[in-house]
Amino acid sequence: HTEDELSRSSHSNPGKNLVNGIKTNPASNSPKSNLPVPVGPPVYVDLAYIPNHCSGKNTDPEFFKRVRASYYVVSGNDAANGEPSRAVLDALLEGKSHWGENLQVTLIPTHDTEVTREWYQQTHEKQQELNIMVLASSSTVVMQDESFPACKIEF
Questions:
Q1: Interacting residues of 64 by C-beta distance below 8 A, sequence separation 6+
Q2: Has residue 151 got a pLDDT over 50?
């Protein structure tokens, strides 16, 4: 396709065949297909939610190379479905190691899971080297019959 054809197709049906904002082949539902990733500068944001409850289905080192956030939220709490995924947490380390700048990054897990605890302990030295801080929640939200840990984020 020419650039004009791609531009027209995205205007006529925005979001069609996009995975994490990247155009994919309609014949392939896999975002990790062998299609080339468009070249472009990284995107800097304050806060990014790691897609799909930190499942390895949609997030790899390329995500972290291109989406550079001050804060990443990890919400997975389903070990049976691989959420959060150790591979995604490792991808953060791999992706950030390619930034070429030592910006502070804060990882905010919304649940205390065995996967995140083990990853934190096993990669703590690498986290420090890459200027990655992992928040542990010391706050608790109490709502009617339910209470859960919470983090407060200030910008």
A1: 91, 92, 94, 95, 96
A2: yes
